[in-house]
Amino acid sequence: MTPIVLIPGLLCTAEVFAHQVAALWPHGPVTVANTLAGETMADMAAAILADAPPRFALAGLSMGGYVALEIMRQAPERVVKLALVSTQALPDTPEQSDQRRAFVALARKARFASVLRQAMASMLHPDHRDDDQLAAVNLRMGLTVGVEGLARQTAAVIGRPDSRPTLPTIRVPTLVLVGDSDPLMPPERSRDMAAAIPGARLAIVPHCGHASTLEQSEAVSQALVEWISG
């Protein structure tokens, strides 16, 4: 069986993949990577590679997708399958970087829990923004990562390279998955990624915002099981 490495997104812990770990477990040993160390995407990728099996299937969510694409630059020969979930290949615009810095500044001076609640609700499908269980999971994860973890991850995200030149070089079975109502990563960006990766499969999850693994856990798990077993 193929080992599977899952990389969480910004302000996420292993809990973001709870449903997917259970679904993928029969198909190979599953590891959720730790993204709390490293100042850059390259640092995060190198740390994950140092702990990863010699060959593995790789799935990254949001920021985890950025790290996954960096792994594809550093060690493409070690990855046997790739899944890019609720993510993009584009670098930040200057405006996006400014917004990220402003969010970190607000998190430092305001009550972090309140900042998290407001920011995380805006990521979800409108029908999910009042879901107390989703809110509790997101708050728990964000508080675990903490303000300094947020600052470090945000700096790495801002400094990431443009991954579009990497996409045509990817030669492993690839799934590109996105929510149909993702306000942070619009589906057209996933369409563009899938079109640029030879043979990639695109999955657009209905009734879903940015927190796809939590908002539509069954659908995302099913897509990942099909990906790993295909």
UniProtKB/TrEMBL annotation:
SUPFAM superfamilies: alpha/beta-Hydrolases. It comes from Nitrospirillum amazonense. Residues 4-222 form the AB hydrolase-1 domain. Gene3D superfamilies: alpha/beta hydrolase. This is Pimeloyl-ACP methyl ester carboxylesterase. Pfam families: Abhydrolase_6 (PF12697).
